[in-house]
Design a protein that fits this description.
This protein is α/β, with parallel strands linked by helices. It has four domains: 2-114, 2-Layer Sandwich (GMP Synthetase, Chain A, domain 3); 145-295, P-loop containing nucleotide triphosphate hydrolases (Rossmann fold, 3-Layer(aba) Sandwich), CATH 3.40.50; 300-370, Helicase, Ruva Protein, domain 3; 377-467, Chromosomal Replication Initiator Protein Dnaa, Chain: A. 55% of the residues lie in helices and 9% in strands. The chain is built from 22 helices and eight strands. The protein has a five-stranded parallel beta sheet, sandwiched between helices. Strands 1-2-3 form a three-stranded mixed beta sheet. Strand 1 and strand 2 (34-39) form a beta hairpin. Helix 12 packs across helix 14, helix 17 runs antiparallel to helix 19 (402-418) and helix 20 (423-429) crosses helix 21. 32% of the residues are buried. Bound molecules: adenosine-5'-diphosphate and magnesium ion. Oligomerizes as a right-handed, spiral filament on DNA at oriC. Residues 165-293 form the AAA+ ATPase domain. It is found in: Cytoplasm. Residues 1-79 are annotated as: Domain I, interacts with DnaA modulators.
């Protein structure tokens, strides 16, 4: 019976969809007019319900008549080998009742039967490494006005993962303000308190790569299932999903599954949800379900405390006036603050010199140079070509390939904006014939940034990098 249903279904949907959603199904039982099919997960069941219920109904009715019933059996995924396989029962949720009313034939009878599914214990045995950095913990994450809300929300989540209204917890803020550190700290703390929970830290970039890989290898399903057995999912730099529709879609389903099952989701982003570009509305609205907490620039006292803590941990001493000098001069990026300290220590020990104010001035100059000094055209070309993953020669070449032309025009635009060089001089330094090319580039960038979202994001990203 099921085979006949399958060939009917196969004829009616794309082969990719068929492979993904129907090949993994096994028919396990046929009793009178009730067919039991085994699906790999609850998510899988929900997906079928949402997308293929009509098709299934038609296929089944053709085979078994109008009294046909469908029973879903969920194959369980067992996270830890030493545990009893557990069974998951699908409650007859409101959602599925509403759904089944749409279906006017006896398929709707499946809901009560789902309460008592016939379950085949799972065979999977997955142990997931958390990918957490133990040095990024709460103890090292100093509290200050700038991070108080985010930090205490993080602690609350760590105490009761999935059990607070902070789900998802979205931590957002500028570069180097502690998003990654805080995200790890929450995970580390949860692992401490709840060792049995499966925690996973992943950057949005890696998540995207994994997803693309899974699509290539035709195991998108395994990818989804892998993420669905996680208790605490931490995704760093979620803004990187911008413009990636496929990844956003799969993340949306994973997110829903986890959220519905009371699992905790923690996200970080370099901007607030309202400012995110090219992220689907339905995802943005999910992000707002929980709490968005901002990490702000640390105030003076917090900067001093962070410096002292860092010195203490590295076992280094530094005169008070130098600490104050650093705290006074590096204000907007804790990573730069740490970088300056490290480089100060390195210089002084390498040259066997004391740490002096002069040395500190020198180093701070390097760290905050782009706000103080004029940005050079060379530097702009370097930043732009790095951003678009090409080398400077390509950027300067005569090619008309669109993305290279765009990169070149952006370089000219920023050269005009950030340097005092003349149009002609910008043109010749970026390998162009004359000032008209540069003028045209500036106009094009202006136009495109007001009409093309993706392009505007390029401009914003680059602007940030150049003024860092
Ligand atoms: P982001 O992910 O926001 O760019 P990171 O989490 O990578 O920033 O933080 C940059 C550096 O600053 C890290 O080394 C981190 O340990 C340190 N840092 C950030 N916030 C704090 C804090 N509140 N206390 C101590 N160190 C911090
Ligand atoms: Mg980070």
């Amino acid at each position: 019976v099921w085979n006949n249903c399958l060939s009917f279904i196969e004829d009616n949907i794309t082969s990719q969809a068929y492979k993904t959603w129907f090949e993994p199904i096994k028919a396990v039982k046929l009793a009178e007019n009730a067919l039991s099919i085994q699906v790999p997960s609850k998510f899988f069941y929900e997906w079928l319900e949402e997308h293929y219920v009509k098709l299934l109904k038609v296929a089944l009715t053709k085979e078994l008549g109008t009294t046909a019933k469908l029973v879903y059996v969920i194959k369980m995924e067992n996270t830890y080998g030493n545990k009893q396989p557990f069974t998951e029962k699908i409650p007859s949720s409101n959602r599925s009742q509403v759904k089944s009313q749409d279906v006017d034939v006896p398929l709707k009878n499946k809901s009560p039967e789902l309460k008592n599914p016939f379950v085949i214990p799972g065979i999977r045995n997955v142990k997931i490494e958390s990918q957490l950095n133990p040095n990024y913990n709460f103890e090292n994450f100093l509290e200050g006005e700038s991070n108080r809300l985010a930090r205490s929300a993080g602690l609350a989540v760590a105490n009761k993962p999935g059990g607070t209204s902070f789900n998802p917890l979205l931590v957002f803020g500028g570069v180097g303000l502690g998003k990654t550190h805080l995200a790890h700290a929450i995970g580390v703390d949860i692992k401490d308190k709840y060792p049995e929970k499966t925690v996973l830290y992943i950057s949005a970039e890696k998540f995207t790569q994994q997803y693309i890989e899974s699509v290539k290898k035709n195991n998108r399903n395994d990818f989804i299932h892998f993420y669905q057995i996680i208790d605490v999912l931490i995704v760093d730099d979620i803004q990187l999903l911008s413009g990636k529709a496929g990844t956003q879609d799969v993340f949306f389903h994973i997110f829903n599954h986890l959220h519905q099952n009371g699992k905790q989701v923690i996200l970080t982003s370099d901007k607030a949800p309202v400012d995110m570009i090219d992220i689907e509305q339905r995802l943005l609205s999910r992000f707002k379900w929980g709490l968005s907490a901002e990490l702000n620039h640390p105030d003076y006292d917090t900067r001093v405390a962070i410096i002292k803590n860092k010195l203490y941990r590295d076992g280094v001493e530094m005169p008070e006036d130098i600490i104050e000098f650093l705290a006074n001069n590096i204000k907007t990026n804790i990573r730069e603050l740490e970088g300056a300290i490290i480089s100060l220590i390195a210089h002084s020990s390498f040259n066997k010199k004391d740490i002096t104010i002069d040395l500190a001035k020198n180093i701070v100059d390097n760290y905050v140079k782009h706000t103080k000094r004029e940005v050079s055209i060379d530097y702009i070309q370097k930043v732009v070509s790095e951003y678009f993953q090409m080398d400077v020669d390509t950027l300067q070449s005569k090619t008309r390939k669109r993305h290279i032309v765009q990169a070149r025009q952006l370089a000219m635009f920023f050269a005009k904006k950030f340097t005092k060089a003349s149009l002609a001089s910008i043109g010749s330094q970026i390998g162009q014939r004359d000032h008209a090319t540069v003028l045209h580039a500036c106009k094009t960038v202006d136009n495109l940034s007001s009409t093309d979202k993706q392009f505007r994001k390029y401009v914003e990203d680059l602007q940030k990098k150049l003024t860092l």
